Amino acid sequence: MSDSVAQPAVRVLAQALFWEEAAGGKVRCTLCPHLCLVGENEEGLCRARGVRNGCMVGLTYARPVTIISDEIEKKPLFHFHPGTRALSLGCYGCNVLCTGCQNWQISHASARTETSRLPELTPAQAVAMARKHKLSGVAFTYNDPAVWIEYVHDVCAAFKEAGLYTAFITAGYLTEPALDYVGEVVDAFKFDLKGATAEQWARLTKVKDPTPAYESAVRAKERHGCHVEVVSNIVPGLNDDEASLQAMARWVREHLGPGTPWHVTRFMPDFELSYLPPTSIKTLERAVRIGKDAGLRFVYVGNVQGHAARHTVCPGCGRTVMRRGEPKVECSGVERGLCAACGEDLGLVEAED
Fold first, then answer.
1. Which of 265, 199, 198, 204 is nearest to 230 (CA)?
2. C-alpha torsion sign, points 151, 50, 53, 5
3. Shared domain check, 126 and 90
4. Do residues 106 and 235 share a domain?
5. Domain containing 335: what range?
6. Which one-letter DSSP state was computed for residue 133?
7. Most exposed residue of 65, 174, 279, 325, measured as fewest CB within 10 angstroms of its CB?
8. pLDDT 10s digits, 64-101
9. Domain tally for the chain?
10. What is the pLDDT of residues 104-153, one digit of tens each?
């Protein structure tokens, strides 16, 4: 995006939400289940929140490091406003810190040292930018949006007031109050299901117990009415065995419903997992079969351009109703969210007429 925004000025740190005073002059962050104990002039594990003058502050409020116009399918969200583009925002820091992260240059960076040089993008400016470029909404992505939740909330509220959609691309590792705070202004919740066991999550991320993440995805759907899609990055030797794929597929069906899209994406070597090979296409196709055998109606292959499993096939009549090219999406087989041929509900969220 080529818009110019305000140049860096004297930066005033905003007091954060979700923290409490703790013993020994420290502060406990209650944003996510890491519950970091943070001392004065220090940062938590995410490196995006720290303590200044005895208070928890957000180090990244209104200071995105990425400002990009993206197809919503890249998030990936295939059943949410298909064919539209969103303003995609990310900041320094992350609370999940994946070992194979492809955005590690920002997600594993410290907001303390990097953010001060960035220009400001207020919620109102973000809306104006989206309108200027005819974008349909905003997506918080590239790092986990939990770490700058105050800004995410304020931007999402401004976008919803403007009649634009909001999307939260996340591993879901938030406390319940934090999720409820942002859930009220989020339309789509893309959940990263990292693995089938706590051991797999711990190998792939800094999360030791993924239970709160699972609970966040369910709560986003059931309490806040978010459209939910699930992504699992299939990593060779770590979560690609038959039992793990079956367990992940079963969890999606049993806890989010058979109509929930499950994206099984191709791992590409990067960062601490650069020694591994890319996921084989056969493994991804096996994951698709496992997902469908588990009762999921929509299972997609990700990170493989041109693959047939990127298209949407009607589970009622078997016709291909949505074709995803690069970058266009053809929805000629869809009428008002239904299969044009047989009337099957495709679970789509589309713009209102």
1. 265
2. negative
3. yes
4. yes
5. 311-353
6. T
7. 325
8. 999 999 999 999 999 999 999 999 999 999 999 999 99
9. 3
10. 999 999 998 888 789 999 999 999 999 999 999 999 999 999 999 999 99
